[in-house]
Amino acid sequence: MNIRDVGGPVIGALCVLSLLPITYLAVTAPWVAVVTVVGIAAALMIWQKPSAMFGAYLVPLLIGEQALAVLIAQDQGNTVQKLSLILITVLACLMAGVRRPPATVLMVIALYGVLLGNSLLTNLEPPQTLTGFLASTAGYLVPWLIFAVDWRKVSPDVPLRVVSLVPVIALVLSLLLDAAGVIPLFTSGNFDMSRLGGTLPPAYLGAAGAFGAIASFWLWLHHKRGSLLTLIFGILVTAASATRAPVIVAFFVIVCLLLFTRRTRTRISGVVRAFVLLGLSFAGWQIAPVLIERTTGQDEYHGDGLSGRNLAWDYFWGRFQEKPWFGHGPGANAVLSQESSIALVREYFIAPHNTYLQLLVDFGLVGALALTVLIASTFIHVARKSARREKVLIASLGLSMAFYAFFDNVLAAPQIYVPMALILAAFNGMADKARSAEGMEPRREQLEVERVKLR
Length: 455
Known about the structure:
It is a single chain. The chain is mainly alpha-helical and 455 residues long. Helices cover 71% and strands 1% of the residues. It is built from 20 helices and two strands. The chain starts with 7 loop residues before the first helix and ends with a helix.
């Protein structure tokens, strides 16, 4: 039984009963009343169309932990964001059904449990508070829980449409909050460079824009309405964030799709391909000076063109060498960063901005190597059973994520690991559905032959 088996009259009665507290809230707390009404409307929409449930992923992806802390007037934005991701994933499983994830994903989850248990037994006590632990380790678990949704029942257009809308809605929301004087739209980074931010830090907004552009381009290849507009928005947001790795990731994946797949089989397909490639090259030429300035510029606080990463990497590498085999335990990066003598590390590097180094510090050489191999195997598993167009996207995305992980916390930022998991899980479900259909076809033919014989 799933959640939709509850009778309609019960839902109607609950809606009627909710009018009294909503009326009270409208007088005492208007904003809470508005949010409550929107929540009920969204619930009814999801009830009528379960695929709308996946639109809920927009909420934690649109607002960063710092902006969320400002909006809720509490210093728990990170925890609220991660809890909402887990809740949405559980609700998605209830609405679409649960399916056993691929073996490699199950092994990632099981290995994480073993490494966590080993850490607790070794240290004999949790390294931090429960909320802090949840906020700093959710990325190790949430992406793989998404695979538990039965994606065979969900069109891949749905999660990719959600991913494509993140930069668009984030930009609109940022404009509104900037106009209200709550959160500034632009932030000044290194060398007084103005970067687009708003509800998200520029680095994470750039990631949202990159994944939005990739999802939009895939939708455009499938002739989906509005995809060209979201593609343009995604590219512009990524460029305006002046974030280096997302620009490279988006450019690499889109160029691979452009070169190795086709949108149409007409004579003008080559012309369209050349035109899009020319447009991407021009965009790259325009943004290149900004990225070069961020990389080669120097100041006494963020030297070597790595925005302080060299200082953080040296510090976390030293902490890894203290426990090289099994690490300090999940979430240790957030605790160890506050023990650094370098103010920059304490303030900006709760994770080292290098996923490989993050895994080494948390899980040691044994755990980091095993997790890296299993995650890479998941990409390979999904790519091998997918159709050509999806195979190109997954392979290019996997290679670009391997590069991205060297310069950022891909398993710590929801704007990175949630779109990645949604794309992988959706394509895995699509491949499974296609295989099931192929397996059913011979059976149908056999039944038809038997019917003819009986006649």
